[in-house]
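[worker-b] picked up task from shared queue
[worker-b] task type: protein-ligand structure
[worker-b] ligand name resolved to S-adenosylmethionine; SMILES cross-checked against name lookup, match
[worker-b] sequence length check passed
[worker-b] input payload:
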Amino acid sequence: MTEPEFLHATRTAYDTIACDYAEEFSAELEAKPIERAMLAAFAEMVGAAGGGPVADLGSGPGRVTAFLHRLGLEAFGIDLSPRMVALARQTYPDIRFDEGSMTALDLPDGSLGGIVAMYSVIHIPHDQLPLVFAEFHRVLAPGGRVLLVFQVGDAPLHRTEAFGRAIALDYYWRQPGPVVELLADAGLAVEAQLLRQPDATEKVSRAVLLVRKRGS
Ligand SMILES: C[S@@+](CC[C@H](N)C(=O)[O-])C[C@H]1O[C@@H](n2cnc3c(N)ncnc32)[C@H](O)[C@@H]1O
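[worker-b] inference finished, payload out:
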C-alpha cells in the first residue's frame, strides 16, 4: 500500500532535524513541572490498573520514554523517523525504540497498559485523527490510560525552516474540546484535562489530556 504523503513529509522533516531537536529539547522536561506531574499521575494510574507495557508514540529523542522508565514503567518508544529512533537508541541503550507509525501500530490488540503521545499527534491531519484514536483503543487493554499533550490553536501551520534547515512540515494546532469528542467517539474517556499557559520559552498554550479506555 502506498504511504500517505503526510507521513513521508513528517518522516523526512524529523530525519533532517533529529540532532538539532534532541540538542534543544532533551533536557526540557526539567523545566516543565506540570508535564512531569501529569506524567507521574499517568504512571501511578497505569500501575494501579495492573501495569503493562507503555508505548511512547512519537518518542523522538527518547527523553519522555526515559522519564517514564525512571517512574518505574515498562516503557518503550515508537517513532516515524529512523534518525530519531537511532538517536534514542544511542542515548538510552537499555530502552527499546522501534520505527513505526501511530496510524498503523505493529502491536497486538489489548496489549498496552498505557500510551503517551507528547507533541506527536500535532502532525496528524484532522481527518486522520479518528483512525489514530481507533488504533489507541485497539492496542490498549481495558482500563489502559493515554496521556496526550499538544499545542492549542485554531489554524494549522506549515514550516519550511527549522534550526536553519529546509523542511516541509505541517503542524495541526487544536482546541481540546473537539479532541475530547473524537476520543469519546473512539471509546476513550477523558478523566482529566489541563490547559497550561505558555511559559517564557513558548508562544502558545498546551493541553494535557489524561484518558482512560472504557471497560473494566
Ligand atoms: C515534536 S516531536 C516530539 C518528540 C517527543 N515526543 C518529545 O516530546 O520530545 C514529534 C515526534 O513525533 C514523531 N511522529 C510524527 N508523526 C508520527 C507518526 N505518525 N507516528 C509515529 N511518530 C510520529 C516525529 O518523527 C517526531 O519525532
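[worker-b] attaching auto-annotations
[worker-b] Residues 5-213 form a domain with the Rossmann fold fold (CATH 3.40.50.150).
[worker-b] releasing lock
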